[in-house]
Amino acid sequence: MSNSMYTNLFYTDAAAFLFTAVAIAWQKSDRGLIRLLRLAGVSLATLPFLNGLKASDLEMILVSLAVLVIHAVVAPTLIARVSVQVRSERQSERTVNSTSVLLLSGISVMLAYLIADKLTVIADGSIARALPISFGVIFISVILLITRRQMASTLIAFLLFDDGISAVTYTLTGGVPSVIELGVLLDVVSLILVMVLLAIKIRPNLSIMEIDELKELHE
Amino acid sequence: MTYRSIALILPILTSILLAIVTATSRGRTLPRLLSLGTPIALVIASLAASDGKAIRLIGSIFYGDAMTSFMLAVTAIVSFLAIVSSWSFLDFEIRSDPVRASKQRQYLSLLQIFLGAMSIAITSDNLGVIWVAVEATTISTAFLVAHKGTAKALEAAWKYVIICSFGIALAFFGTVLVYFSAIHAGISPSNALDIHYLVRGASRMHNDATRLGLGLILLGYSAKVGLVPFHTWLADAHSQAPAPVSALMSGVLLSVAFTIILRLERFSSLSVGPGLFQNGLLVMALASILTAALLMVGQKDFKRLFAYSSIENMGVIAIAGSIGTRIALYALLLQIFAHGVAKAIAFISAGIMQMHIGSTDISDVIALTRRTPMIALTLSVAMLALLGFPPFAIFSSETSIAYSLGTSGESVILVLVSLALLIGFGSLARHVGRMLFFEAATTVSTISISITDSIPLVVGIGLSLYIGIVTSPISQLVSQATYTLGFAK
């Protein structure tokens, strides 16, 4: 793969990743959210895949497959269980409207460019210029966490947050050592599983599965 | 591979094996006795790590020195107390609801996974492996916090997982940035996450990536330590978890998370200057001590009271970490040891009271001195130790931290910390005093304590006194551990 082709493909995929994150912040339907989450997982897994292809590194390509399985298949499927268990047709409740969410996402991406700029100066290689996109996804996940009240949305925000951090890894360093990468993937999927199991157990105690309903321990 | 390196990973291997055995074993007594295998393995590993020069295994993935030995020793002691006290907790649970007998396997197995994950976090020098291990502690303890299955327990577990996972995710973000900076500084990618290599290459890592990375690591692990503003999970989780689990979380888990910050402080100081960690720790520590002290004043639940006392204690430890002098670090480690044992006694006593009284409301617990002299004694000792009365070790550790603050010219901080500690002192003394001595107009029943209940409490009291009165060999181990931290001013 030529250098320019690799760079172009990497930029395109990173842009698709950011676009998916913005769409997640804007999306209301639960099913739509899960579909977009899967798409974000595919975009994320493509980043190490391209790195592996460029470096002819089989280990990195295998890591990208593991990322695809965890981030695009297993984790979204688990989160979908919470959405389905709670309400199949209801739409996610949120505290601000679509326009505000899009505006906040735009501001957060600009902020990401300002912060990441200091790091891209240090970094070698052209793909590091895609770093603000990963930062932007992290910020959008925080917006999602703040503006949505449903438990399922918290899980989606967590996965997107993790997607963003992983994207930083692939953009800046080409990924952490494989053993640690696999450990991190295992931890992420275990955590999502724990959160899903807890959410399902909590369900009978709540009426609409909103975080505001968790008041048993308020002092 | 030497016997010392095998000994270093023995707790991890033992806990994995015992997690499988306890999860599959049908009997009641054998799995409980076998659970003690991990504390024994921890003692062996601690002795191996304390003996001579540092141990390295699989590059620097596993690393053992005096600091490792110290934390393994604290974990061994508190885990022994927690496991033995778990026996009576499980018996009580089965007596109350025979259907929950099957839960014993899950409980004991998760306890082993928790201990194994903590052992990895203590014995690894690799930031990536440490991160994976700390995250694994969250996963295993989430189910332990939710063990009772009540609405409150599930809610506490949910909050715990959410706050700690986002916190730890921040720490991973920081780890990635430090890794990037290390590679950029010419450190080989295979060593770029090893703390010792980072320290060696720190002078070449004076850049914004390191600064941002270390800031995120500090924030991330602070969530696990329970420092303000990430403290909200702590009181919920500690109050809802079974008492032995609360003892382990409060006595060891918070300290293990803090020692990760401590081990990175030298790297931070050499790369981006001492200000980042020292100021960050100081601000969070002060906020934690003040918040915890104020929340203790009107507290109605005795397990939450002890949990807030843990936040206050971690604040004191963080203050010592921010000072960074040899005396402050020595005091910090001594405080970790003494607090771990004293808090274990407090939570185990609290668990026994909860089992017999059926409530964790302070107002429901009265006249303990007459109803159960044993618990009254253990609770009094734990309180005296936590409040820093001599001859308990917290007296000397807190005095040393105060001295360090004074000699560092931080008089305003010293006054603020002293005032907050005074509020916490008064609240703890008032609430526990009421539980011990308040007499009700109505007749109250006596509480009989079994021998199994008494064993961890008696051992705990003995250890608390030992740490405070007998200086060697603990002071020697603490001194060596302080020396390995190596950033004393």
How would you explain this protein's 3D organization?
The complex is a heterodimer of chains A (219) and B (489). Chain A is mostly helical and 219 residues long. Chain A has one domain. Chain A contains seven helices and no strands. Chain A has helices at residues 3-26, 30-55, 58-86, 98-122, 131-147, 151-172, 178-202. In chain A, helix 1 (3-26) packs parallel to helix 5. Chain A is globular, with a radius of gyration of 18 Å. In chain A, 50% of the residues are buried. The model of chain A has no long low-confidence stretch (mean pLDDT 87). By secondary structure, chain B is an all-alpha fold. Chain B has three domains: 1-123; 144-273, no CATH class; 274-489, no CATH class. Chain B has helices spanning 3-24, 29-34, 37-50, 66-96, 103-123, 127-145, 151-184, 195-200, 208-225, 232-240, 243-272, 275-297, 302-323, 326-357, 368-371, 373-386, 393-407, 411-437, 451-469, 474-485; strands at residues 55-57, 62-64. A two-stranded antiparallel sheet of chain B has the order 1-2. In chain B, strand 1 and strand 2 (62-64) form a beta hairpin. In chain B, helix 6 (127-145) packs antiparallel against helix 11 (243-272), helix 11 (243-272) packs parallel to helix 13 (302-323) and helix 13 (302-323) packs across helix 17 (393-407). The longest helix of chain B is centred in the middle third of the chain and has 34 residues, at 151-184. In chain B, 64% of the residues are buried. Classes of the chains: A mainly alpha (219), B mainly alpha (489). At the A-B interface, helix 4, helix 6 and helix 7 of A face helix 6, helix 7, helix 9 and helix 10 of B.
Poorly predicted runs of 5 or more residues of chain A: none
Proportion of residues in helical segments of chain A: over 70%
Low-confidence stretches of chain B: none
| Quaternary structure type | heterodimer
Mean pLDDT of chain A: 87
The Cα radius of gyration of chain B reads 21 Å
What is the overall number of helices of chain A? 7
Shape of chain A: globular
Distance between the termini of chain B: 36 Å
